[in-house]
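=== RUN LOG ===
request id: a7f3
mode: sequence -> structure
chains: 1
length: 343
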Amino acid sequence: MGDEDEPGGRFPLDRRKRDFEKILYEEGVRIEVYRVIIQKKRNPEQRPSISQLKVADIIYRKMKVGGDIIETKKIGRNRIIAICRDAQTANKLVESEDLKKDHEVFVPFSFISRAAVIRNVDVEYTEEELKEEIDSGEYKILSVKRMKRRMFRDGKITFGESQSVKIFFQGSQFPAAVYLWGVRLACEPFMPPIIQCYRCFRYNHTISQCRGNKVCKVCGSKDEPHECNLTESCINCKGNHKADSAECPEKKRQKSIKELMAFQNLSVMEATSMLPKSNERDMFSVITSNRFQKKDEAEVKTVEKKKKDDMNKTLIDLNSSNSSSMSHEYMEAEVAGAANASP
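=== RESULT ===
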């Protein structure tokens, strides 16, 4: 799954590639939140696991910049996001030799850019031509990429040029519209497509990246070969439907994650942490209003209800603002269904 089309060559967030470009925040660029990723270096002898306390120890006692760190959040087994007060502090973390001794510290390209989509751009215009000619005012364009349109021909999936174009703008904001030869082209947030593997039927990877066992789409069996009894059982949610059903709660959760990424400019792990699976939502029996004060049972229920109401409102707002024109028929070639087709 290539990312060679992104500025600077390889996409820095893809940690499967060991050689990545160092990105620093620039002063004067519109950035709403200064975030830095810190993750433990890989060890071939054991699975990496990051210690949040050890990272905090380095930041506070060795680097002496703890006062300029708003928060550190652990997302996943081996990754921490540090939220900094300014660009200078974030860049200090990226360049810290103390941190880099045992960790990889980096700013993903998605943290210093924002992707938007413009539509109704005739296919005859090249990406280079569009980047040169589009007037985006004070918003700097980093790259332009024409998107692909998925089509079915003779029972097979093919991809052709579409009239939708993705633009990466510098910073965490993008304009309401850009102009091409005086024609106003509205900008809308780019929503990443839902990627489902057609081997194991899990999400966020393709067949070429799959390390899991082949799973029956209908009954969820991992036995190979097997005679399917046609009793539908989803491998993801155990519901009575096929693994690729549009009604699957997990598929709907994945769609909501992509919407949060698009509309709130979050990384996939940040968005996922906001929408955990149903069996992960009741992990903590103690909820606190601040670092030290424990709430009583009535307060806990009130907080839980408010959090649920706020999340529901967020998702309703996202769905209402996500127009029908934002269709999943437009996908990038690198996540093409052809690469994911069942063998």
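=== NOTES ===
The chain has a mean pLDDT of 81.
The first helix runs from residue 52 to 62.
=== END ===
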